[in-house]
């Protein structure tokens, strides 16, 4: 009776919001993201994305590592094949799936910069814009709002990462483009996808290209990825970059480096090779030089070519067997 009387007389206060905070307790983190492999659907922007996660048993909350799949859209396989990196690098593995129905090559490999009719899309529509939002969602789930992250994409995912580094501020510590099929040359004489041509001025001016060359981008190449497989692009613009993915990546790196040096611009790219590795994401992940590509430690960076630039058909005058994908 007294409790009822008090409930009637005392004012009913609204629930007080709880201020966000960092979760330091491993038990609380484990409750949010279970140990081992899991998956969940997250609302990111206007999209529901299937996200595959792996939390190593030894994870101390040091970092998270995004792995971006290739043209097969096999995010679950990428998560599974990145588990060893999770242990090596004390990383929570995050592998989002960009299905081909909603994210065809225009919206995945090329990030949705241009709409289907060729007109420029606003930045809020870019697929690239989903990455920092997804990072924020995973941080919120883990209760670690300042958790640093790295991004590693292979093949079509490597194309996505490379082009994203030119247009989107992700907040990632490092972006690694591994074995991309075609590369974004810092030239306006090539159409978008292969260069900055035919883009609006604000997306292709000197300032944009200069920011691209300063981006924390690693071009990570398997030296045996020089065979044209069933998914290798053989378009005129693609073949102009080189006869294999390794050659194309080298041409992009040295074109960028030469341009930055000629202009006195900051150059933030890193070139790392995995000797003897072909177009296989798991072997690229497992190779010791993957650490160099991600963190600048361990392994070896690729040496400069002994005789001039790799085959790129112009000097940088601007601006003024089944394989795993």
Description:
It is a single chain. The chain is an alpha/beta fold. The protein has a single domain, classed as Rossmann fold (3-Layer(aba) Sandwich). It has twelve helices and eight strands. An eight-stranded mixed beta sheet has the order 1-2-4-3-5-6-7-8, with helices on both faces. The longest helix is centred in the C-terminal third of the chain and has 19 residues. The chain starts with a helix and ends in a 30-residue tail after the last helix.
Short description:
The chain is an alpha/beta fold and 325 residues long. It has helices at 2-9, 26-32, 75-81, 83-88, 130-142, 156-167, 201-204, 206-214, 236-239, 245-263, 281-286, 289-295; strands spanning 36-44, 47-55, 63-68, 91-96, 149-154, 175-178, 217-222, 270-274.
> How many strands, which pairing sense, and closed or not: the largest β-sheet?
8 strands, mixed
What is the helix/strand order?
Answer: HHEEEHHEHEHEHHEHHEHH
Rounded to an integer, what's the Rg over CA atoms?
A: 22 Å
* Average pLDDT level: 87
The helix content is: 25-40%
Estimate what percentage of residues fall within beta strands.
Answer: 15-25%
Secondary structure elements and pairings:
Elements: H1 2-9, H2 26-32, E1 36-44, E2 47-55, E3 63-68, H3 75-81, H4 83-88, E4 91-96, H5 130-142, E5 149-154, H6 156-167, E6 175-178, H7 201-204, H8 206-214, E7 217-222, H9 236-239, H10 245-263, E8 270-274, H11 281-286, H12 289-295
Parallel strand pairs: 3-4, 3-5, 5-6, 6-7, 7-8
Antiparallel strand pairs: 1-2, 2-4
